[in-house]
Amino acid sequence: MDESLKHHNPNPILTANPLSKLLFWWMNPIFRKGYSRRLEVDDMFNVTNEDSSEELGKKLEREWNIELAKSKKVNKSPSLSKCIVRIFGVQYALLGIIVFIEEATKVVQPLLLGQLIRYFTPNSTISQMDAYLYALGMSLAAIVLAVFHHPYFFTVQRIGMQIRVACCSLLYRKALRLSNRAMGQTTTGQIVNLMSNDVNRFDTAVMFIHYIWIGPLQALFVLVILWMELGPSAIAGFAVLLCLVPVQSLMGKLFANLRHKTAVHTDERVKVMSEIISGMRVIKMYCWEKPFGELVAKIRKLETDRIRMSSNIRALILGPFLVSIKFIIFLTFVIYVYTGGAMTAEKVFITIALYQAVRLSTTLFIPFAFQFLSESRVTVERLQKFLQLDELDQGSVEEASGLRPKPENCFIEVDRITARWDMDSEQPTLSDISVKVGPRKLLAVIGPVGAGKSSLLMSILRELPVSEGSVKVRGKISYVSQQPWVFSASLRQNIVFGNKFDSARYNKIIKACALDKDIEVMPNGDSTLIGDRGVSLSGGQRARVSLARALYMDADVYLLDDPLSAVDAVVSRHLFQKVIKGMLKNKPRILVTHQLHFLKEADEIIILKEGQCLGKGTFDDISTSGIDFSSLLKSNEEEEKEKPPVVKYERATSVDRTHSSLQNIGSTISLTSIGTEFEPDPVKQPEEEERREGRVGWWVYFRYFQAGSGPIKFPLLVLVNLVAQAAYIMSDWWLARWSNNEEDRDDLIQKDSLLRSQGINNTNITIPDSDTDFNVYVFSGIIFSVFLFGLLRALMYFKVAVDAAKHLHNRMFRRLLRAPIRFFDINPVGRVLNRFSKDTGHMDDNLPITVFDYIQCVLIILGIVIVVIAIIPYVFIILVPLAVLLYVTRRYHITTSRHIKRLEGTTRSPVFSHLSASLQGLHTIRALRVQEKFCEEFDNHQNLHTESWFLFLSSSRWLAVRLDWMCAVFVTAVSFACVFLAQGLSAGLVGLLMTYAMTLMGLFQWAVRQSAEVESQMISVERVLEYSKLDTEAELESDKPPPPSWPENGKIVAKNAKLRYGPDSPWVFHGLNFVIKGREKVGLVGRTGAGKSSLISLMFRMAEMDGSVIIDDVDTQKIGLHELRNKISIIPQDPVLFTGTLRKNLDPFEECTDEQLWKALEEVQLKPAVEDLPGKLDSEVSEGGTNFSVGQRQLICLARAILRQNHILMIDEATANVDPRTDSLIQKTIREKFKHCTVITIAHRLNTIMDSDRVMVLDDGQIMEYNHPYVLLQDTDGYLYKMVQQTGKGESQKLLEIARSTYNNIPAEDRPILTEETKIVTTDDIYLSENGDVTSISANHVLQKQTREEDSASEVVPSPSEGPDRSFEGNEDENEDVDESETSTLLDAKKQQNLDTLPSLSYADDNFVSHSQKDDPLVKSSIHNQHVTENSRPSEDTNGVSETTELLNDVKNDE
Asked: Does residue 1419 carry a pLDDT above 50?
């Protein structure tokens, strides 16, 4: 779907000749490019077919299906390992030949060395020419190693990559088929961990498996040679070598076992982190940072304990490995000497060279092979467990032939179905349900929360297993989920969804879903990215994008799961008329809804309760059926007759009419564009993940070691490393000295014997004593110190590394918890989670071993160079240019390598983000049958990552080949220099020199490559450190906290309050001023994107603000965030539940008793549902709370608010997803439980706020109206009035009656004063025309024609930024002071302006003064000839000025 993932840059390896492949010349162009500029995604080579995610995934899936079929026949568990072997086994086996040649060369080289050393012994019989030939043989052996080693490792690592890619592709395809039951058995975090960490074991395992058979074979050859050289004493040393293999293998298995246990804790931590990052807004509002911090700290401690044990085992593996050869040589020669053997340099250094050759394969590669095989087996078992989870049996929903049926033949038929989400549950989710929907029919599904409405749609989609009955669908299905799902892509990609782009149809759908105007103002039009999880869109906006996607699918059958609940009344009516009754009028449609005013237009209605059908039929049938469902189903006629509820007046002592301005709302874009001129701010772009330039700074290394060690521990670690290396070199030097002394002694003995045999008794030859015991004792001491310091440095280093990873993770996590909410809005979950999964995994596993290996390599190389220069200073001549060449090559390589590694990091994140997004939208993806497209998208993401990983492997080998050739030159130079300078050299020193030169052969390139790898791995530390420096919110607690009883009244005063979402963002509120009295109930309404949620951000200080919000005389700017947020309860728009028990979700601090918890659940109508759960309060909540319906989740959030018992409550569209009956019960609960509290309610359902003390109407970031709802409804041009109109005749009368009743219940002295000659509004005045077109003029509309008289220039007129002034002539208390600077301009602009004649309230007298709504979207959409009366000048306020008016005056004076 995302074409940007594809680029054309053919891979040069496909056309490279054999020599180019051998020396990696085909990589030269990318290095030239990388050295001159930063590499971008388009510079990467395309994947080859053999590396393609799609090809590999299909191959493995095919083999896995064959394996599944076989296993079912023989009743055995299927084996993923067999599938992998069948695909990659032959190619991998052939690579064993190359390894065999390489390891055979390593055995031949010591034999050539022995012959060369013999040339330097006294009385040598080898000629100089032979010596040069042996030196040439040594050089050729070095070249063979350079030629064979790197193509092998490159190919084998590529196979490891292919296995990983194939497994990831198979995992993703499986994830798209998981049944709902299976989804309950796994989590997104676990699947992400399988893909990010577990499958990486294949990359490393394949490198060593061949050594399981090559190692013993090589060891056997070496043993034979050593037997010929040393006799039986060779067996002693070799026995120790062989004993190390099972010990190391045992350690490897133990390590793998611990790795498995660690992975469980890592899974848990990543899962919790995923939930925390997704739900951070709720966590901050509820002040839950501490319990979640403790939860993560607890899991991380368990994880680090396992990692620490693993590191200790790793130290025990690596410590002996580095000194094992010394111990073996010590044992071999001690026995050899004490059994009468003669120490010679030739024997000593042949033995050392042979043991060095066999050491890697025997003591390191074989244990590694067993370790990684064990880890891979664990990975395979985890993968198999996941792959064997239940799959969804969707059956054949469409015609088997694949042909689309004719529209008149499409239908949905559900026949007496019974279905259960939990097959073990006795209570079915749906019981004996039957429905049939044919062409042109609309079925409305209604019922209370948890009734099974969404489950009915799920059963049609085959998501819910049907145990009895049948479901038949003819035609292609399209589905709109209750929780709108959008993914991180452009708006067009979200709507087109991978289908062929049809401009005409697309534009028609955009207009029908009211997205056209918004696309115009987006920075890049419909190509604008809308971010991960649609963070730049509100719930209503996401709902309409989701609806547009369903329309574009051009399906035959439509399932709509409450798509209208997230939008306001105007948009809701538009969508119903233009989409459901418009574009889809000829299709079979099932609409789940809670909006009862649309029921009359449905062809059939089904009422569900507790999974059973209470009634079914037309609207009239249901209305007259006598079903006891009156509170849920009311005809408009019944509504008109019903008396409004009596609301006891227990609120603020006065209700002042206030007015304030709200400008330039910038929190979200608005997609509400129904013929309006609302200009939303630009969409928030998801920020591209930062890629640092240049090398990793030294400060990163400093911070890393500082985090793991202190001022004493680090110098001590350095000292131990130096001492260990000195002891290491000393052991070899002592052997060389010992063998030279023995050879010299033997030579003197032979000379003395020769002279005596010639009759010369006085030879003057002094034969030194052979102090074998002294040499053995000194050698023993050196070997012991090598062993001791080698083990000590390994244990010390790994402790430092584990502590560093632990502290850096904790710092990062603490900083993340304190980061502003904007950080989570602009960063996708996958990107943040990457720091806690992949980067933390690198610090835990890969980085410690890489750094340790690099340090040891550097120390050994330094020691070798010092020894070589000390013995043959002339080598320094060739060493200098080699060192310069090395430096230049490494620098040339590292520049490109950094780009490649960082590209690898940034191309990895989208893989996990796509996986996470796919799992969130699983129902939608499957319902729309776009699994193949999403698999293709996933493969594209994986291919992009494979391209960067392929470059990483290739660039590493490019460097290694060149370094090994340099080393081959060095070995050649040393070999020939030894022969050329033979006069001053002893056999022992030559042996030491050449052994070290051979060691340098592989070690040198490995050290340089490890330095690059260390830097690459340190990028993870750098990324973690970046998050350790995130900006933080204000302090959680202040020095002067408010009293514990604060706030007592809940009075809220905003003074010149400003808000913005980032330092570079525009101000959302430019000096907001309003007053909310203590215990007042304020309703907040406005179209989608009007800025309602930004007011919540202001109250909770979720974003950067200026000015002040004062609650009960305490400036919230001057207190800690927790001191503020703890005192305000919130029921958020998106109900968020976390994994854990229901009890933990309600009361994470465990402050409430069970009795209090049950009471809260009872008050929100959830007690019966929770009592039915097996664990009741201790029942587990699945990831995202998916085992509860959306409505039930919102009720749980309401229960949280009740338990908090605060004096201020904010409700953010909390009942948007519940049925009206439950809604009314919730409203009743809120009125009773919070009657002594200040309540601010954001609602799309106007009935929830019509009994408020005041209603604040927001539009375009401005407070357009703010007064008692009944007062506002008297304004025929008012915003609230027009919103009420959209609800229909019956509903509008009910709302008016509620407002009037509430108004009349206010004591007369506190009641807002209406115009003296106001006509009582009739029902006919407030309703929408039958066709639902908000701009049409119907005969039903009461037209208002009021002539505006022009007044003097000093007349007070509202500024557009402040909204219209609803002044009443003669109303002394309603006066407002408005900035007069704009008056004359506005008066001129208002002259002769014609406005649209809209459905309006009519008044008998023209004394009521109405303003033209300059910025009113509904008015401006269609202009007709209508005169509007001019404002009368408000009279002076003789009774005093309201608090808000005072604030406005203050602002005016400030200006």
From this structure: no
